[in-house]
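Researcher: Go.
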Amino acid sequence: MIDFFQLLVGAIALGAIYALIALGFNLIFATSRLMNFAQGDLAMLGAMVGVTFGGTLKLPFPLVALAAAGGVGLLFFLFEFAVLRSFVRRKATLTSMVMATLALSLFLQGAAEIVWGRLEHPVPSPVSAEPIHLGGVVVSPHYLVVVGVSLLAFAVMYAFFRGTLLGKALLATGYEPESARLVGINPTFMVALTFFLGGGFAALAGLVVSPITFAAPWMGLSLAVKGFAAAMIGGLGSVAGALIGGLIVGLLETLGAGYVSSAYADVFIFLSLMLVLFFMPSGLLGSPLVTGEHF
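Model: Structure:
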């Protein structure tokens, strides 16, 4: 039983990371219907910001987190403004735009290799490395940081959607952009806002996972795949679905590796994904946002 609770601790921490990645996927998809293949490498860029600002410059973690989320969010906002809007003006297909995000992913990975090299880099944690003992369960203090950052991000988004006019305008754009335009909402601005938020949340995920896994230019692929699975399981377009999907993926990966084999951990994730989509094509908390094209 102690082994189970030990695995559960790791599963929750992993799930919190995947949930942040999935949150970015869902926000961007909600307003644009675009599946962002650069999400994992935006997370990688956040980790690399941690290498420079946290490891080299020794800045406090709140400033590093602000720099990572703000800087990467701004970068992705500029990508939407400079690249994707030109696709829209030329009436390009969504497939072309998805390929553009794939090109951005490859560019970011190559640029990171040039700037930081191909090797792994340590990223300092804002808390002590001294483990916390709860009965027979050992908890890394950094796991609490991971879970805390993720819960804070979801709480902020919940308050943003429920308590602000801007958040409600973003929801309206996701459900029906033409009707939102008729009541004075600018859908183009709302799409840009979700790109900023999606990039920022990806960067936070990369930053908080890097003290556990180290930071490397090639780390983005795994994060993107697991975050995508979490978004699909929870339900595209659903913020709560991103959280639930992330926790499910974290549990499947950790328990599968712990009780069966780490070689089959991904098998359990994608088998579960196929089963969920077979019986519930919109995911567990499926949203009507899954249908239609809005970009």
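Model: The beta strands are 132-134, 137-139.
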